[in-house]
Please model this.
Amino acid sequence: MTRVIFATGNEDKMKEIRSILADTYPEILSMKEAGINIDIAEDGKSYEENSLIKARAVAAEAGVLVLADDSGLEIDFLNKEPGVYSARYMGEDTPYRIKNANLISRLEGVPEEKRTARFVCAIAAVFPDGRELTVRAAIEGVIGYQAKGSNGFGYDPIFYVPELGKTTAEMTEEEKNLVSHRGKALRLMKEELRKL
Model:
C-alpha cells in the first residue's frame, strides 16, 4: 500500500507530513490532489473524534488508507482555550495574526510561569477494511509576549519553547519536525502502521 490520502487541504501541513512519512509512504496526496471535495463538519468533542470524522468521510470516498489529524493550542490560564476550536477560534476566516494578537492581549500582565500551554495533535488512520486507530502527542511551552518568527503557521509565532529558546515559528523545518506535536504524532502513527 503505497498510496495514502491525508485528509487536509493545508499545504503547510502537507509539507510536514510528507517530510516525516516519505520513507514509509512515497505517495501522500492531499484531498485536493486526490480529487475529493467534500465538506466535513468537525463537531467532535476531542482531537481524536475530529480526526476520525475527517478520516472516515474521506475513506468512504477513496477506498485507500486515509490519515487525518486534528490539533489545537491549549492555554492553561484560559481554561485550555482555544483547544479543539483552535482552527475556528474567532472565525475560520480570521487571519492568525489577529487570533495571535487577541490571545496575547488576553494574557496581558500574566507572568511567564502562568502562561503554560501546549500544542496537541491526534492522528487517525482509517483502513479500506474499516479498521481504525488513533495516536496523540503534544509539545509543552509557554505563550510569548509577542509574535516572533516567520517559518511556521497558525499559532506558531506565539508558542515559545523554553528549552530551545525560540518560538515554533523561529525553528527550521527540521527542528520543528523533531519536536512538534504533529511531528511526534506522525512518528507514533508511522510506528503503529509498521506493526500492522
About this structure: Residues 47-62 form the longest helix (16 residues).
